[in-house]
Specification:
This protein has about 100 residues and is mainly α. It is built from five helices and no strands.
């Protein structure tokens, strides 16, 4: 979806008056390949085996803290969040366990 948004945005910026197919930079694929790539996963896939977004966030924060010797300021900067937000996330992970 993001690729499509970027494609349309750049076409609007760089097109003269009207957007033509040549202004669109999406890769060309036949319709069958495109439909297969976009089709939803089968119902047989078990969702229980997949980690939640919160779990992935916890793991990533733990890895960053380990890599940067527990330096919370550096980790917050890498994550693009404030140090207080990181501290709040860390407190939340302890409360959920």
């Amino acid at each position: 979806m993001r690729e499509l948004e970027n494609c349309i945005e750049s076409a609007v910026i760089f097109a003269d008056d009207e957007i033509s197919p040549s202004d669109l930079s999406l890769p060309r694929a036949n319709a069958t390949q495109t439909l297969r790539a976009v089709s939803p996963p089968s119902a047989a896939v078990s969702v229980e085996d997949e980690p939640s977004l919160a779990e992935l966030e916890r793991r990533y924060i733990a890895q960053l803290l380990e890599k940067h010797d527990g330096n919370r300021s550096v980790c917050a900067q890498i994550l693009g969040i404030g140090r207080n937000t990181l501290l709040r996330k860390l407190r939340g992970t302890r409360n959920e366990e």
